[in-house]
Amino acid sequence: MTKAFILMNRLGRRPTVFVWIFFTAISQILLAYASLYISNYNPVWSAPLWPASGAALAAVLLGGPWMLVGVFLGLIPSQLFFWGSVPTITAFLLPLANVVETALAWFLLRKVARGFNDRFSTQLDLIYFLVLAPWLPALTSALLGQWFLALTFREFTTDTFVSEVLVYAMGNASGMILVTPLILIWRDILRLHPKPDRSVWISVVTALGVLAMVWGIQRGLYTIWLLMLLPPLVFWGVWTTGIRGASLNCCILSLLLFQVQPDLPFDVRLQKKHPLTSQSSDRVDKKSNLSSQLVQDPLAIQFALLTVFCITLYPLGLASDKLQTSKQKDRMMMDALKSSLWSWSGALGYKIESPQVAELFAQDCELFDPKISAGQRKVFPKDPRKPPYLSHWTTTESSNSGAPQQVIGILHSLGMEEKVAAAEKSAAVAQMEIENLRSRLNPHLLFNCLTGLRTLILKNPTQARKFTEKLAQFLRAAVDTQNAPLITIQEEIDLCRSYLDLRRLSKSDFVASFQVDSNCLNVPVPPMTIHSLIENALKHGSRVNRKKLNIFISVHLHDQKLVILVTHPGSLNLARVDKPNGGIAMTRKHLALFFEKRASLHLLQASARKIAARVEIQT
Q1: Mean pLDDT, rounded, for 51-72
Q2: What is the CATH number of domain 337-423?
Q3: What is the CATH number of domain 427-619?
Q4: pTM > 0.70: yes or no
């Protein structure tokens, strides 16, 4: 009694649990009743599609294991009233099979696949769901359900036991694959988008178009034409709307396989579903040919459904979402930097890519000097209260007289630099972040990249396109490291590789190799630590007899210390050791700021012809 009181007291603190249990039970009642309207290929106990399983799994994933109570309570009426042919004890036992199914699927997704995200944000989430959720739980539920029938229902026959189990399992698995993602993906669409965005409207319109085509195909109206138009419409809708469109279109396309018959009388529907309740004389004849038909028709069609819909449309939707996210991230990066690409031609004049930046400047604003092929100049917006911009440009095409005909460039807001100058009086951590920002996104870096891009455009347009892609990747990686004062070795190595790939496209006079132990990848370091050492090697390394500069980067743990070693050919200049350049000095400052005396950076003459920059951090 005391334990029951404590349990009710805990539940009383969360009254919404009872509300969600109630709604879960209602959904089970409605979907169990709706399964009667799904046309059976043969009169069998099991349904070829059981959408209640999908709703049950979604409810438990969102509300927790307490929703299993709602699953059990919601399925009891379907056994007592909808079927109307099983004993009372059977009606209470059969829902337990569905409860076990849902609980097992929840356990596999939440406890076994610990990285599973119920928003299906990655392909791995989709693999977890398709592999773990439907099959073993559905088969377990099917075996339990048929076993309960065999124990408690004397009119139950074992002639079709195997076929019934297969249809039961495939019906429940299909319900989870079709209904669960639909609920999970669309569950908060109204809360996230009070005014639905363009992708939501496209999803709805595309779904209505697919539904109309499916309706026409089922009724034999222009079947050939509709079958030709249906795949392009579905794939276009999924590609433009992502995983949302995929989940919606999968459910609609299932109507091609699981037909709905709303006009059949209720009692006739029950008789067709349960041949054992019929007193007709041909009951035995129906049972005799039942087993072979069950395995041939529904299972083959359901396997085709799972293969085509789930292996094709869901991954396509996730790929579309990832591409759209990447594009949005690039736009947000440029907007955050208040920068924009621009171009000029003698025929068309200026074109500034970003509308927000373009509206700041007058139409007659001069972004470059026609007398200089490449350079930079400060330009001022129409509003004097706005910070000035720095325009970097390079001429890509000139006339015979030397006059520019085509120019490209970047507009870079100096507002960031003004904020940097004001923030230099703040705390040391803020100072470090500002200096990192300068080293990664300074105008000279952009100017050097544009100069290299200009050379590649004239000599090798294909290489120029690769250079542009590498530049975007490097800038994106550099901006991402601003979010934290410390980043992992893995993030730092990725940034260095992007920088080396970018430099290699414009000037491949070096060879860089990495040796990084796997147990070091998650160790935190200040941003640009290894990058600064590599830049120092590229600047001061010796290239003998026009050979390429060999740079070796090693990261490993030794005596509870993280050791970073960057070696390159050359002779150590003692004057440079006492007065290191800006990159080395900044790195030492950052190491001292975060690790104090537990970190050090030394320039050493490793051998007669090799210099080593060695960083040690006590872990």
Answers
A1: 92
A2: 3.30.450
A3: 3.30.565.10
A4: no
